[in-house]
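Notebook, bench 3.
Goal today: get a predicted structure for SPON1 protein from Tachuris rubrigastra so we can plan the truncation constructs. The sequence was checked against the plasmid map this morning, with no discrepancies at the termini. Length recorded as 129 residues. Pasting the sequence as submitted so the record is complete.
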Amino acid sequence: IFVSDTIPCLLSPWSEWSDCSVTCGKGMRTRQRMLKSAAELGDCNEELEQAEKCMLPECPIDCELTEWSQWSECNTSCGKGHMIRTRMIKIEPQFGGTACPETVQRSKCRVRKCLRGPGMEKRRWKEAR
C-alpha cells in the first residue's frame, strides 16, 4: 500500500480565548489547540497557540501630591494669628482614582502679647493735639 507523506494535521478545535492578562488597561489573551494526529505521520507546521491584544477600561489613576511646604510666618506681629502650609497636585485623579485631599492647612499661632496699655493711649492723645 502506497502511503502519501502529505497526511493533513488532525487538530482539535481552538479553545476559548483566555481572560485578558490584566484587570484594567492593555493586556494579552491566548488560545490553544492540540495536535490529534501522531507526530510520526509527518511534520505538522500548524500553530498550536495564538495570542492577541485585549483592552479593558482604563486603570484608575490616584491623586498624587508634592510634600508639604514649610509653615509660613505667623500673619500677625503680636497676639493671635495663623500660619499656613501648602502642597501641589502632581497628578490629577482619573478613571475613578482616589480624590485629592486638602492642599492647604492652617494652624493657629501666637506671637508675644500686644502692648495695649493706658500709657500708650495717653501718649497718642498728646501727640494728636
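Residues 121-125 have pLDDT under 50 and may be disordered. The beta strands are 26-32, 49-55, 64-65, 79-86, 89-91, 104-111.
Flagging this for group meeting.
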